[in-house]
Amino acid sequence: MTTSCPLHLTAAVPSKELLTIVTLSWNGRYLYLVPSATTFFTLTHDDQASVRQLARDLWVYFEQRQIDGILVRRGPSAGPHQASAGSTRFETVLQLLPLTCAHVHVQKVLGWARQQEWLLPLPQAGLRATEAAHQEQAILTAAFGIACVLGSIPIGLRQDWMGT
């Protein structure tokens, strides 16, 4: 008899003023947003003390939730939609934490999303429009990561692992 094993994946999407952290859970059939592992961080000042405090806050957050790896969405490094200095700062702080940071380019996530028909969780209710838009992008990034993990598992093992 096989039993399904949930898969959890945490994604981080940095923007100019906000770092959005989302954890999705895949139960073999559906994706679920994990509210207790989903939040926002801000960096109001870019001085050394503020950046160090952000790093401490992030590490406490990840440690309390036993998150040891994240998928970080990267913006373009050049061109008209170039990633902001704020998002680069968030990425740098994440890379300096003692956890695994895999990176994916925003264009790869968006290209995948156009080709798929996954049923994705909605952003949490009660968020401001800006937060909801950022959370939606983080959900998309986490779903991309889960799809990559599932795609790398051989079919036979995938069926056993998911209990199908």
Mean pLDDT: 83
Helix content: 40-55%
Helix/strand structural class? alpha/beta
Within CATH, the superfamily carries the name: Ribonuclease H-like superfamily/Ribonuclease H
Q: Measure the end-to-end span.
A: 10 Å
Q: What name is given to the CATH topology?
A: Nucleotidyltransferase, domain 5
Give the percentage of residues in beta strands: 15-25%
Task: Give structural attributes.
6-stranded mixed beta sheet; single chain; globular; 22% strand; alpha/beta; 164 residues
Please describe what this structure looks like:
This protein is of the alpha/beta class. The chain has one domain (7-162): Nucleotidyltransferase, domain 5. Helices cover 43% and strands 22% of the residues. Helix 1 crosses helix 2 (85-96).
Compact summary:
This protein starts with 6 loop residues before the first strand and ends with a helix. The chain has one domain: Nucleotidyltransferase, domain 5, CATH 3.30.420.
Task: Give the secondary structure arrangement, pairings included.
Elements lengths: L6 E8 L3 E9 L4 E3 L5 E4 L5 H17 L4 E6 L10 H12 L3 E6 H10 L13 H24 L2 H8 L2
Parallel strand pairs: 1-5, 5-6
Antiparallel strand pairs: 1-2, 2-3, 2-4
